[in-house]
Design brief:
Layout (H helix, E strand, L loop, with lengths): L3 H5 L2 E5 L3 H14 L3 E5 L5 H8 L3 E5 L7 H11 L7 E5 L4 H7 L4 E4 L4 H33 L9 H18 L2 E9 L2 H8 L1 H18 L5 E6 L2 E9 L3 H15 L2 E3 L2 E3 L3 E8 L6 H17 L5 E3 L5 H6 L1
Parallel strand pairs: 1-2, 1-3, 3-4, 4-5, 11-12
Antiparallel strand pairs: 6-8, 6-11, 7-8, 9-10
Bound molecules: guanosine-5'-triphosphate.
Amino acid sequence: MISAADILAASILIVDDKEANVLLLEQMLREAGYSRVASTMDPHSVCALHRDHHYDLILLDLQMPGMDGFQVMENLKECEIDGYVPVLVITAQPGHKLRALTSGARDFIAKPFDLIEVKTRIHNMLEVRLLYKQLEDYSRALESLALHDPLTGLPNRRLLMDRLSLAIAHAHRNQSTMAVMYLDLDGFKLINDTLGHDAGDTLLQMVADRLVAAVRQEDTVSRLGGDEFVIGLSELSHADDAVNMVLKVIQALAQPYNIQGRNVSMTASVGIGIYPTHGVEVETLMKSADTALYEAKRTGKNTYRIAAHFDRVAMAGS
Ligand SMILES: Nc1nc2c(ncn2[C@@H]2O[C@H](COP(=O)(O)OP(=O)(O)OP(=O)(O)O)[C@@H](O)[C@H]2O)c(=O)[nH]1
């Protein structure tokens, strides 16, 4: 819902070449309680101002020397990034109303001003504008929720799969390599059992931060769920780089964690699958890394294993 306070806090730009009109509208808006009102008498400056300030409403005079309101609207359509041009035109010519509406104006105000009507139109238009913004925020938040793990904020499996596909396509095009690192914490259940689930959550968040800090920005650190994390290492110049990265990751995770005033120790086991040696598709690479992780767990934990060689003939025949 949009509250009256939201509407009064919206940002407004007045564009009119006549100072008397600017002052009248400014005064009327301030008296009505609007707190963010700016103005310009130069129509050429509107686009740059809007780009910098993202106004919720632009009150635009249609008749101005040098550049009329119709030209300003054309320019605004080009510089508006989210596709909504929030213009309310001001005109003394009844014949211009329809042309203004078909040129992109959301509504119009007739001169001479009927102040009650002006206030009502501004209020209504701002309400629609803010609802539109709210809808955009909701859909962005939903999109983010669908692609991220709520506990750590890391990409989830769905986003990871997309990023791995891109990294593979990139490696294929550049005849370079990339790798998948599959991690599972060792004995994590014990933290939950001894310190409680909240402490377990805190540890998972600290692990996520350390993983992000250990790799490069172009790599993808994701949480699949529980104590399982997968890192997509993209644009590796050599397969050995994956081994250097895994050693760095294992060492970063093995440093003590301070949770609820206690020093907690935790280690991780890791399996690595390297493109194209251990798979040329996301699914096979993930499977190879998962199998290698199983080997790392089986042979003592707090270590890593590289996948066994990918058997292309067997895969093609299976
Ligand atoms: N705190 C917390 N615990 C979780 C979450 N999701 C899963 N778990 C717990 O994580 C534990 C994962 O256990 P496992 O990986 O099977 O066991 P482990 O103790 O790490 O054993 P190994 O992997 O063999 O070393 C289980 O006890 C789950 O209940 C979560 O979001 N928060």
